[in-house]
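1st attempt posting a full record on here, be nice pls
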Amino acid sequence: MQLNDSQDSNRKLRQQIASLRSSKRSAILETLKELRSDGDVSVLPELFNLMLIQEDEEVLGEITTLLNDLKDKEATALLAEAIANPEYEKIQTALVAACWQNRLSYGLHITTFINVLISGSYIASVEAFTVIEEAVGELEQEQRVMLVHSLKSKLQQIDDQKKPLFVELIKAVESY
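the predicted structure (as tokens):
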């Protein structure tokens, strides 16, 4: 019985991926609606790829809403990997924003968000700041001390526009 459930699940996942890869707007929207109620995190890379090529604002909005509402903690690693992946630079800000919106735990991936703060666009940096600020509470005191030291050592790498944000983050971590 479990084998059949697994086969059904795999079949359903393959159908969802095929729909997302199709050029049929209605099929894509229907699949996104289905994923909201009964999705598997393994489909996230397909959504990231779709965000790169999709021009339909409604489809992009549905994907963004789905990412913002994620509740499966397994999604954090996939989001962090995508954020760190240069292939997804075009959608990095939206992915980082989804991380603070979905309120999942990103403490294990804090370095990814620090890298965005350092080298990402200003808007992506502001989004990353929010994720880091939320994740600091998940760290042990020793990890926070090491984080402050690391942040201070990178202060010279920060451009002038983002420097106040970076200094504020250091203060926030120190005061935790």
